[in-house]
Design a protein that fits this description.
Helices cover 69% and strands 0% of the residues. It has 184 residues and is mainly α.
Length: 184
């Protein structure tokens, strides 16, 4: 696939496994779908309420798109190293201090991802006893996004940790040039 048109960022490639690139692409497409669905359902909700014939189920659709978009977005942002990291602290260092701080950050993110996965799964199972109105859909349908996101966050942080240890966390010359171009 042409790098100019790819949904997978080449930035910090040394921290990524190519095998997970298709997953990142799918997650980016899902983020776009949830954003489009959220915006469309909000507009439809406003229009139907203005016309005096509200579709009450539309609020359920809106909240579903919003929640899934947030949790899928958190996972893909972790892969892209755009979220959940104290990047400025690590990037200001070099050598062994950089390795230590980058490793510590990713270990914390892995733990957060695992907690989200475990407790999100527990919450998901409990969600079958509560229902959304008016559809009577189990609230577990919303909670499913939490453990999925947690597992993906842990996976992507683990990927970066392993590759950082192997290839180094420091930016390549291409990353530095790309950052310079984006700032201008």
């Amino acid at each position: 696939m042409d790098n100019e048109r790819s949904l997978v960022l080449e930035r910090q490639r040394q921290l990524k496994w190519r095998a997970l690139d298709p997953l990142e692409s799918v997650l980016m497409m899902l983020c776009g779908l949830t954003l489009a669905g959220f915006c469309t359902s909000v507009v439809c909700d406003i229009v139907t309420r203005t016309l005096g014939a509200p579709w009450l189920w539309l609020q359920e659709v809106t909240s579903t798109f919003f929640i899934y978009g947030i949790f899928i977005g958190a996972a893909v942002a972790t892969r892209r190293n755009d979220h959940l990291f104290l990047a400025a602290v690590g990037e200001s260092m070099t050598g062994r201090p950089r390795l230590v701080i980058e490793s510590a950050i990713r270990l914390v993110v892995i733990m957060v991802g695992l907690f989200l996965a475990w407790y999100g799964y527990v919450n998901f199972l409990r969600g079958f006893s509560s229902f959304r109105m008016p559809s009577m859909t189990p609230i577990a349908s919303l909670y499913a996004a939490i453990p999925i996101s947690g597992a993906l966050i842990a996976l992507f942080a683990f990927e970066q940790l392993v590759n950082g240890w192997k290839n180094g966390f420091e930016k390549s010359a291409e990353d530095i040039e790309s950052d310079r171009i984006h700032v201008q």
